[in-house]
Specification:
Keywords: Glycoprotein, Hydrolase, Membrane, Signal, Transmembrane, Transmembrane helix
Organism: Ananas comosus
Structural class: alpha/beta
Pfam family, one: Lipase_GDSL
Radius of gyration: 19 Å
Strand order of the largest sheet: 2-1-3-4-5-8
CATH topology: Rossmann fold
Number of strands: 8
Protein name: GDSL esterase/lipase At3g62280-like
Largest sheet: 6 strands, mixed
Shape: globular
Strand content: 5-15%
GO molecular function: hydrolase activity, acting on ester bonds
CATH class: Alpha Beta
Number of domains: 1
Order of helices and strands: EHHEHHEHHHEHHEHEEHEH
CATH architecture: 3-Layer(aba) Sandwich
């Protein structure tokens, strides 16, 4: 059913800018259910797509927790989506772009680090990820009768959960381009329109369960603070960049309206929006309750307090160092969250308390 929509085309690789090198290996878990998830997103949920898709390598100390080797995740260990899979008792989601050892029995992860809703320096924007899903579904149908491929049935495609975690990079790129705060906010409707187009295309091709995340507090990331802060007057009460967080809030307000619209229009579907901003901001606001001592400081980086982040001396570079194993940090490398922070985030996601409507993912997945 190779359906496509106007404006969706395969990316050009002319502007590809490679800044990291990564490696991936298959990561099976014990399986007790047939819950299926198709995930679309960026580095917050990329389980190794950038590594496999571009043939790159992300060296130590990434992956030092749990896996004890590099996995292509921008983290010291597991991402929030890994903990969700564990809770659902399904395999970790293999990246769509991984050619060796992938297991797509319980879904596919189309998320790629560095991407946005539109084409950037890294290929595979949201539009391409959805086209990849359509290709996967078509190939699954072709191979199923031969006993090959994932063997996901048409009913299982219909009953699967389609999760979307996208928008953070769009906002960050706008700020990096030195757009004023009002202009950044003016771009938000276009970002959400592309997200809506992606969800609509999945809906037109049979998807009926949508789990949508809003974006987190960008102004609390050590990288943002280290590179973009000019003076302390730009900070909020937690020491985060106010404009970045306000832009994220503006995005999330409009995302809430989009979720209401989708719920109204898709009468035979379930749309759940999860407040990732509140989940992550709580880590910074109440860091002592979670045992985090320096909430705005990267575990792995260079420069020491207050942010331990220096441009071109980032985590994985020979001159960068990581905090001791067992130290509790929110930020792993100045941009991405640590395994311990991801575990807390996942538990809150799974609670259903941060979702509208307040449906648990476990319930949605198996309904």
């Amino acid at each position: 059913m190779g359906n496509s929509r106007a404006g969706y085309s395969l990316p050009s690789f002319n502007n590809l800018f490679v800044v990291v090198i990564l490696v991936l290996y298959p990561l099976p878990t014990h399986v007790d259910s047939k819950c299926i998830i198709f995930n679309f997103g960026d580095s917050n949920s990329d389980t190794g797509a950038l590594t496999s898709g571009l043939g790159l390598y992300l060296g130590p100390p990434a992956g030092r927790q749990f896996f004890h080797k590099t996995t292509g995740r921008f983290c010291d260990g597991r991402l929030y989506i890994d903990f969700i899979c564990e809770n659902l008792k399904i395999n970790y989601l293999s990246p769509y772009l991984e050619s060796s050892g992938s297991n797509f029995t319980h879904g596919v992860n189309f998320a790629v680090a560095g991407v946005a809703t539109q084409m950037t320096g890294v290929p595979f924007p949201l539009s391409t990820q959805v086209l990849q899903f359509l290709h996967f579904k078509n190939r699954t149908r072709d191979l199923r009768s031969k006993g090959l491929g994932s063997l996901i049935s048409e009913k299982e495609f219909h009953d699967a959960v389609y999760s979307f975690d996208m928008g953070q990079n769009d906002i960050s790129i706008a700020f990096i381009a030195n757009l004023s705060y009002p202009r950044v906010v003016d771009n938000i409707p276009s970002i959400l329109s592309r997200i809506e187009d992606a969800i609509e295309l999945v809906y037109e091709n049979g998807g009926r369960k949508f789990w949508i995340y809003n974006t987190g507090p960008l102004g609390c990331l050590p990288q943002t603070l280290a590179l973009r802060k000019k003076n302390d007057s730009e900070l909020d009460l937690l020491g985060c960049l106010a404009d970045y967080n306000n832009a994220a809030k503006a995005f999330n307000e409009q995302m809430n309206k989009l979720c209401d619209k989708l719920s109204s229009e898709y009468k035979n579907a379930t749309t759940v929006c999860t407040d990732m901003y509140s989940i992550k901001y709580d880590l910074f606001a109440n860091h002592k309750e979670y045992g985090f001592e320096n909430p705005l400081m990267a575990c792995c980086g260079h420069g020491g307090p207050p942010y331990n982040y220096a441009d071109r001396i980032t985590c994985g570079q020979p001159t960068a160092t990581a905090c001791a194993v067992g130290d509790r940090s929110i930020s792993w490398d100045g941009v991405h969250y640590t395994e311990v922070a991801n575990k807390i985030a996942a538990s809150k996601i799974l609670s259903g308390k941060y979702s509208n409507p307040q449906i648990k993912l476990t319930t949605l997945c198996r309904s």
